[in-house]
Amino acid sequence: MTARIVLLHLAVLLLLFALQFIASDYVILTLTRIMVLAVYASGYNLLFGYSGLLSLGHAMFFATGLYAAAIGTTRAGLSVPEAFLAATLIGVVVSSIMGVIVLRARGVGFMIVTLMFSQAAFLTVLYFGDYTRGDEGIVILDTIRIFSFLGRTIDLTDPLLRYNLALALLAILVALILVLVRSRFGHVLVAIRENEDRTAMLGYDVARYKFIAFVISGTLSAVSGATYALMFAYAGSTLASIQYSIHPLLWTLLGGASTTLGPMLGTGVMFLLVDFASGFTNVSLLITGAVLIALVLFFPKGILGSIRQRYLKWLP
Amino acid sequence: MLDVQSIDCFYGAAQVLRSLSLRLEAGEILCLLGRNGAGKTTALKAIMGLVRVRSGHIVLDGVDLTKLAAHDVPRHGIGYVPQGRRLFSELTVLENLKIGLMTRNAGPEVLDHVLTVFPILKDRLKQQSGTLSGGEQQMLAMARALCVNPKLLLLDEPTEGLSPAMIARIRQSVLDLKDHGVTVILVEQRVDAVLPVATRVAFVENGRVTATMSVEELGRNRHAIDKYVGIGG
Questions:
Q1: What are the two backbone dihedrals, phi and then psi, of residue A34, each rounded to the nearest 5 degrees?
Q2: pTM for the structure as a whole
Q3: CATH architecture under which domain B2-86+151-228 falls
Q4: Each residue of B173-189: pLDDT tens digit?
């Protein structure tokens, strides 16, 4: 891995670390949300950007982590770390099972099947309202979110602590994604995206690679969901809806598919755009849509994807 | 080296290969000639495990390939360059080659060897492969197949759509491969592209090999070309 690639990613993380000393409480909260959801977008990007598999059902995995953490802490009596671990493991199991089923389809078929399963998961959340509290959602009490871990008291109601925990999670994710996409595994995923049949002809077990990518992607989505629930004390059905399957796709496209930092940038830009537009109009989505059309016209490969294409060929 | 024993293959209900048999010795360049739809490409796909063999066996140096998954076949030393090249067009020349090299965890010495056979690629390593000319793309496809260090290389119409000058270069590359000890099965419709390189020719008709002869015999028996391919040489 070249030094400038490492330096670039370190610089981004350092910038985010430094922001907490100058940003307002509102900006801190917004950035925390963006970082947690950027984990979701990056997990999605591994499957869509690098492997070429367009899933329309990733909300199912996000919701898996979200509800596993929320139900784990509020009903099963798990501590926050236990619930987080359980949510991650359940994410692995659910994405593995789904991977076995949905990866039998290709192309449009894959999109439709993932969408169907995701909708089924969404309806399941509503149907089992006794456990999930349906539309109302689950609120995790602050008393649960203040806990002891390795002899220290962790207070997830503290915005700065949440910010730094989200940043730590993001840093781990950045390192993981960088290593993955620059490894043999990452190169084969790109080959599969470019030409699945040709990759198989070269002697790669395409089904196995796609399955592994799917499970990693689904698990990262579940991790993001669990973190979201525990940090923001809420798990609601809207977070399991189709909207949350489309969001990571938009964030990834906006920032640049198959770039390591693109999904984070896309998540941030979209968040800030919606936030900015909703500040002075109640038709904010119209303005957001117009800006997105302009971005697609001028940056067809996403912001970082286009910058890589035109100026910085080395950008990972 | 390779023994294709009476294989039958189907696309749905349609039988494409009918008891097709072939034998190939190490160091040979065997050319499969035949009309469109005769089953030449399907025969290559069957060897690669990309089309299921319903009956019969394909044995490479004692290993029955019909019992292997498609992705395991190249690991036994078979490279395949399909019709239309099918490069990873968004990737650079070097990245295309690396994908091939990683299949068998081959080191830089294999890459050096491949670039010796295809020196034209040396200057193009950082170029996006989709922007190469047709002939260069063909050479890259062959080079990438060579990266898996094959003892047997299957080439499906490598001269398709190329200029006469490029055909001559591809032809020379095939001869170079032979000099490096690679055995080749070449599918072609252009008889003139085959005769200078092949050691033996097998005519495929209606899914079976109907005649096999050396290039010298073919030279003395030109009406065979009219009979099986439908064109004069």
A1: -60, -45
A2: 0.83
A3: 3-Layer(aba) Sandwich (3.40)
A4: 888 888 888 899 999 87
